[in-house]
Q: What sequence folds into this?
């Protein structure tokens, strides 16, 4: 069941094409307004494209040239949103039985199927409750069961964990990993962890277009472009491969280990985690990699402060940031050990 | 429940009290004029019972007609998008602000013997004006906006997110309407129907103009009260009290159904 998708929506500047292979889960990453929701709504049939063509398993979802548009309910594509959106007037069991009932299954058979799906979602004991009596995590569990019960050919997930308490999202994530293992799905998320846990492949959107994509680990651990590196929370450096590391585009010699072989003299990229980078006012001693930079801004992140410079970002403790009296415009040294720099081919 | 003014200035509360008195005092004044000794015979006289039964019958029929026509109208106004939608909404709600007597004249020139449609119906042997059907039509004409208005508001409040979920679960538009949309707005539909019923029950001007005042056929309770006011004020007062009681029950019911709307709206977030 392959999804082939190609669509343009003029007013939103949306223009992209991609495919989802049978059984494959694709994560869609990107900032707000990148076109992630537009993509899901186009696939689900809740929005009409200005131009384009999409097919699922050979059946046309839309084809503007031929004037074809399949209504959402005949596409066999179900959507799981941020909010569970359980029908408040139906019991949990009736919510899950809604899909089978709509497909024409008789009431008793639909309820028995619903029980099976509730068991699959580990929520059979909630069958007789009303949605108002459920916690956020329980409701989302039921929503997953309801979406699966309609036996969709493709499952769409729109930030399924975003509205959940952090204490329950690991359990939901684990369940989603289980049910998505052999299903075709598109997961929109801004959480890198979701992409790593759930997706075989990622596509990165910005301004309505695909700017990056590939196998999840490849894209997120060895980013080729700054934008993806930013999403993955990594510093990206580009330059030319040397025997011991690379020479940055700004001429700085850096040493690091090759994560993937790159021929000496070829274009190379390298990444380093902000948490591995140390900030000092004076040039550091020793043999660590070092770069000069000027502080652009400081952003508190939990128990750390992210210090952004024009070359690298570094995570330091608040105490360290105060001790160094860091502010926008402060010239600093940034240092990180050789083993923190991973070198791979440039994109 | 905690009581208190909730930060409202005292003088505002005082004016509000005057307003409440303005509404309640006339009703109290009327009850002081009720001839309790004769009350039961007065409201069970032949003409009273005929008017009461006619009013109930026609109002129920008008309410059914309002639901039948008003639910699709509210759905179209709340969900569809087309040119001239705002103008159409304003026109559909016109009977709300139109003097009922004007509505009656308009109906007469539509369904009357020489009316736009009435002429054709007359040829087919159907005569609507000055019949019980005319009473129902007059009541529907004035009551329909109440149902459309309250249902359209509820449809907008509920939003389309549940409907979208229903569609992606494989439910056809008709199934979504039956199993998702209508159950979600049921409280508003009930309160809208009750308001329409109340408006139909009180209809006077359009009925008198379009249907006339024939005992047992078109003389509904308000018409009977107006007629009795000249000859038997006691009967008029007694029947008025009956209408007041019905109105209070109806308002109470609509209020409870309305509370249900807020409840379901609150569940969404």
A:
């Amino acid at each position: 069941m392959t999804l082939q998708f190609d669509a343009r929506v003029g007013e939103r500047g949306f223009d992209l094409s991609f495919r989802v292979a049978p059984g494959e889960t694709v994560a869609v990453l990107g900032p707000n307004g990148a076109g992630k929701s537009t993509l899901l709504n186009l696939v689900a049939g809740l929005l009409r494209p200005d131009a384009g063509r999409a097919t699922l398993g050979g059946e046309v979802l839309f084809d503007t040239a031929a004037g074809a548009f399949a209504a959402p309910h005949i596409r066999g594509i179900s959507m799981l949103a941020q909010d569970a959106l359980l029908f408040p007037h139906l019991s949990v069991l009736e919510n899950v039985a809604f899909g089978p009932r709509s497909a024409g299954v008789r009431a008793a058979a639909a309820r028995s199927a619903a029980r099976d799906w509730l068991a699959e979602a580990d929520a059979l004991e909630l069958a007789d409750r009303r949605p108002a009596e459920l916690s956020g995590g329980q409701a989302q569990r039921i929503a997953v069961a309801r979406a699966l019960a309609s036996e969709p050919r493709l499952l769409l997930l729109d930030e399924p964990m975003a509205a959940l308490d952090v204490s329950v999202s690991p359990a939901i994530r684990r369940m989603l990993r289980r049910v998505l293992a052999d299903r075709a799905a598109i997961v929109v998320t801004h959480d890198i962890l979701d992409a790593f846990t759930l997706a075989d492949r990622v596509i990165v959107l910005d301004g309505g277009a695909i700017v990056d994509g590939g196998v999840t680990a490849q894209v997120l651990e060895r980013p080729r472009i700054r934008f993806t590196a930013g999403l993955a929370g990594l510093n990206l450096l580009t330059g030319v491969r040397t025997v011991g590391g690379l020479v940055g585009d700004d001429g700085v010699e850096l040493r690091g280990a090759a994560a993937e072989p790159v021929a000496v003299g070829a274009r190379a990229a390298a990444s380093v985690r902000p948490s591995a980078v140390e900030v000092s006012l004076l040039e550091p001693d020793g043999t660590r990699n070092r770069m000069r930079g000027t502080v652009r801004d400081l952003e508190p992140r939990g128990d750390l402060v992210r210090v952004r410079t024009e070359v690298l970002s570094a995570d330091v403790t608040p105490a360290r940031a105060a001790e160094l009296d860091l502010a926008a415009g402060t010239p600093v040294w940034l240092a990180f050990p050789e083993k923190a720099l991973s070198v791979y081919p440039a994109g | 429940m905690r009581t208190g003014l909730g930060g409202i200035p005292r003088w505002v509360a005082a004016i509000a009290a005057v307003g409440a008195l303005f509404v309640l005092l006339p009703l109290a004044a009327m009850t002081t004029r009720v001839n309790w000794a004769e009350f039961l015979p007065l409201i069970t006289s032949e003409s009273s019972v005929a008017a009461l039964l006619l009013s109930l019958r026609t109002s129920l029929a008008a309410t059914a007609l309002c639901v039948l026509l008003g639910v699709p109208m509210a759905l179209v106004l709340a969900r569809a998008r087309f040119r001239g939608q705002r103008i159409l909404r304003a026109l559909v709600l016109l009977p709300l602000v139109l003097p009922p007597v004007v509505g009656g004249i308009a109906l007469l020139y539509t369904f009357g013997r020489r009316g736009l449609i009435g002429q054709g119906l007359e040829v087919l042997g159907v005569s609507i004006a000055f019949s019980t059907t005319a009473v129902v039509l007059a009541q529907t004409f004035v009551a329909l906006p109440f149902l459309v208005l309250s249902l359209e508001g509820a449809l907008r409040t509920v939003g389309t997110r549940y409907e979208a979920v229903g569609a992606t679960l494989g439910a056809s538009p008709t199934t979504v309407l039956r199993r998702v949309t209508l159950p979600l707005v049921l409280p508003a539909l009930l309160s809208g129907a009750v308001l329409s019923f109340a408006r139909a029950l009180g209809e006077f001007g359009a009925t008198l103009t379009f249907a006339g005042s024939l005992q047992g056929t078109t003389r509904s309770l308000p018409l009977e009260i107006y007629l009795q006011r000249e000859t038997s004020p006691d009967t008029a007062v007694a029947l008025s009290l009956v209408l007041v009681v019905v109105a209070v029950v109806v308002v109470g019911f609509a209020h409870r159904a309305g509370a249900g709307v807020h409840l379901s709206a609150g569940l969404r977030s």
About this structure: The CA atoms of residues 127 and 146 of chain A lie 12 Å apart. The longest strand of chain A covers residues 289-301. Chain A touches chain B through 30 residues (CB under 8 Å). Chain A has a mean pLDDT of 92.
